[in-house]
Amino acid sequence: MTLIKSLSIFALLIGTLAFSEFIRPVPNAIDNPHMPNLESVIPVSAGGWQSVNKDYAQIVDTKMEKSLDAIYSQTLTRVYVDHQQHQVILSLAYGPNQTEPLRVHKPEVCYPAQGFNIESNEVGQLKVGDQTIPVKFLKGVSSDQIEFVTYWIVVGGVAVATDLDFKLQQFKFSLKGKIPDGLLFRVSSHGQNAKAEYQKQKDFVNDLMKAVDSGTRNFLLGEVIH
Question: What is the DSSP letter of 144?
């Protein structure tokens, strides 16, 4: 290796180190002060849906409870039922610092840990009022039930559905020396017909967004990357 080439590589390494120190992220100062209380801002009734007292599996395996305390500052899980006794499970999880070790758990990772086999995992869109957001549609199958899932993640105030968009948001914040916060919004239901279950979930999400104030709606839906 020539001296010039060696010096060039050394300079590149020093430059990379200096740049990484310059953009070293720090917690986003707006995370905690403006974070709404999920229990308070999410209504127990929305449209024709009513929250009912019913046990349901947590958003992740309970064996991970200790690690979850470091990831999430708030979680909320409720079962809603309409007049036809259709059920939808709403699960929310908020984490103030979306670094890789502390980022929100994606359902396609959590569900297999709870005994589900992910048979379908597709990126799509969900029309919510006049806003279209990117979402993931999952089909999980266990030994005794089939669960359909619609979810998205709001990271740094922007709705994303793919890892690439998630990492792009992380990178944008790192350039400002900050770490984005993140909210996982998940709705799921049990059934046999995928089209019917996803439509039911869409109806629920739209009813829920009509029942919350504009600030909560913006927090739950985020902006959309164009």
Answer: S
Per-residue pLDDT of 97-107, as tens digits, reads: 655 444 567 88
Express each pLDDT in 39-57 by its tens digit: 999 999 999 999 998 665 4
Q: What is the DSSP letter of 97?
A: -
CA distances to 107, 126, 219 from 203, rounded to whole Å, are 21, 10, 19
Cα-based torsion angle of the residue sequence 43, 44, 47, 49 in order, rounded to the nearest 10 degrees: 150
Cβ-proximal residues to 84 (8 Å cutoff; 6+ apart), any chain: none
pTM: 0.79
Residue 122 φ then ψ, to 5°:
-130, 140
Provide, rounded to the nearest whole percent, the portion of the chain with pLDDT above 70. Answer: 71
Compute the 3-state secondary structure of the chain and give helix, strand, coil in percent, each to the nearest 5.
35, 35, 30
CA dihedral for 78, 82, 88, 90, sign (positive or negative) = negative
Given this model, what pLDDT does residue 48 score?
A: 93
> Counting beta carbons within 10 angstroms of the beta carbon of residue 104, is it exposed (0 to 12), middle (13 to 18) or buried (19 or more)?
buried
- How is residue 19 written in tokens? 């740049």
Quick: pLDDT tens for 154-177: 988 999 998 898 888 888 888 888
Distance (Å, rounded) from C-alpha 206 to C-alpha 221? Answer: 11
